[in-house]
Amino acid sequence: xxxxxxxGALRKPLVSVRGLKMHFPIYAGILRRKVGAxxxxxxxxxxxxxxxTLGLVGESGCGKSTVGRALLRLYExxxxxxxxxxxxxxxxxxxxxxxxxxxxxxxxxDPQASLNPRMTVAAIxxxxxxxxxxxxxxxxxxxxxxxxxxxxxNRRFANRYPHEFSGGQRQRIGIAxxxxxxxxxxxxxxxxxxxxxxxxxxxxxxxEDLQDRLGLTYLFISHDxxxxxxxxxxxxxxxxxxxAELSPREALYARPLHPYARALLSAxxxxxxxxxxxxxxxxxxxxxxxxxxxxxxxxxxxxxxQVMAVCRDVEPELAEVEPGRFVACHLMAMDTAGGxxxxxxxxxxxxxxxxxx
Amino acid sequence: xxxxxxxxxxxxxxxxxxxxxxxxLLVDLAPGSPLSDVPLTVPPDVRQKMLEAMGADQPVMVxxxxxxxxxxxxxxxxxxxxxxxxDFAQGAQRIISWQSKVPVFQIIGERLPQTLTVVGTxxxxxxxxxxxIGIYSAYRQYSWFDQAGTFFAMAGFSVPTFFTxxxxxxxxxxxxxxxxxxxxxxLEVVDWASFTKxxxxxxxxxxxxxxxxxxxxxxxxxxxxLENLGQDYVRTARAKGxxxxxxxxxxxxxxxxxxxxxxxxxxxxxxxxxxxxTEQIFKINGIGAALIGAINVSDLPTVQTVTFIFAVLIVxxxxxxxxxxxxxxxxxxxx
Lengths: 357, 335
Hints:
The complex is a heterodimer. Chain A has helices at residues 64-71, 94-100, 121-132, 137-150, 167-179, 197-214, 225-231, 249-254, 259-265, 273-278, 330-337, 342-356, and strands at residues 13-28, 33-49, 53-57, 79-84, 87-88, 104-107, 185-189, 217-221, 234-239, 242-248, 319-322, 325-327. By secondary structure, chain A is an alpha/beta fold. In chain A, the strands form 2 sheets. Chain A has an 8-stranded mixed β-sheet with strand order 6-7-8-3-9-10-12-11, with helices on both faces. Chain B has a domain at 104-328: Orthogonal Bundle (MetI-like fold). Chain B is globular. The termini of chain B are close together.
């Protein structure tokens, strides 16, 4: 019952994003006047419930990482609201924001570059404690050791430098650093993309383990669809700076509703060779339009296999088409109005399954 | 680190020997004679005697090895004698300037303080100006401050010192009369009045040289800080909730200064080498002026010794820069 469905009634959202926009200005010409903006994130809204993992997937350049960074205000968002734990992060003054940082942390993609090469592991993990607590040295050292134990790093490594570690170990340092101040919300920005496959599983299991023990809430950004299926409770699919579909994991992977989500998920290889032989890939034609100049209407209308006239004019809203499933597509509106062809039949069919379950 | 240093010092020996030979041959083969400023009325046999007295009639290899012996053995002995009051040298032949018939090291001892005061101060001031400009330019990239800094660096770098020097003299010494045009080497700082006079006469040459040094170093600092500001670990530091000041001064600056320290260390030999052009313009009796004077009259021992000391300094500061790099950057290990 608690799985998938509509957990909103049971748990309250820890993170609540409304209309988040992140536009990067483009300057050109002799006078370097502003001539436009790259709309990396263009009106994104979602909730993340307490203790939940929200997966954020999409192809390269669709704005996943920008969402993650804007959420923690590592970028100044152009517009929108990001309420984390009851306070709007997007509008906090700098000092209040800094005091808020212990609550929300980030695990970065590149564990090599995101650690200061001139600081020892103990200094890297302990620096947040220097900044945000008034503990004495002993207590800080004890906490650093505790964190190193938690992420499975040998305490003897405390005085080594980041370059002396392997990729997986460095990511553990990054995780320990993020955990130092007992955050409630962690943005994992492709934490496994830079690691080789054998280490990926270790790190993901570590993240899951920590979530169970510490009750963490994750936003897990990745382009690895299988890994997201493994770790996330709900998954948001992004395309060109907007959310195309946001659904519970099982429902999304079993039956994606948005045409883009369908195309994206059809790219996941199947482990079973008999199923793999029958897997039908939806190959999208053409390229992703430039985020500086997105198409009028639906962002996906230039490549959508089921594009309609209305798609080129009217931008679809992200709407709840089934309990817990949000889709931004005109096809859905058609289906609820009744009368369209095959996808509608599928929807109803699944609805019944959902109710039975 | 120690083995690295020792190895580098050992490899420096053949390098320096080769450099000394090349300099010696270059100076010796250059046209001109040590007697070129002796009047033509002096009869040939007297000229021959003068050459013999200076040892200039010997074959070039003999003179070279004699110089090597004097430089590496006899002069250090005199140095020890001067320091400890002993008498190891026992009156052995020193390196004598053909021009002034005075030991070359004595000339260097007289000239070096002027050079170090002026050029050293200029270098120090240049570094002190360049660092804040470079850091703030990078932090506010493309701001008006950065643009102004870029212009300043461009101007400082591309306008030669013989132009800025004369321009400053024209404006501040001739027209405004605030500072003297000539640097008085005999001025001794004994009281407040002489101290202000010293400051006044140092102002122009120091400004000229500091502008030039600051231009170069500020560009290095800016690009280095810029490179580090974009690094992921800076974002990590911000995500930790560090204050901006701490992010820039602790995380960015410490990493950015590694290449800057190297550039500054490599530039230090030029302080000892003096600024030949600037010393000429302001009539500062420094090392650079001594070198130019010696070149003009083919004073081989002086040119040879002074140039060789520059070579030693350059090799030494290269080594120091490398060692500093190893100390500042934990990723670099020389063992």
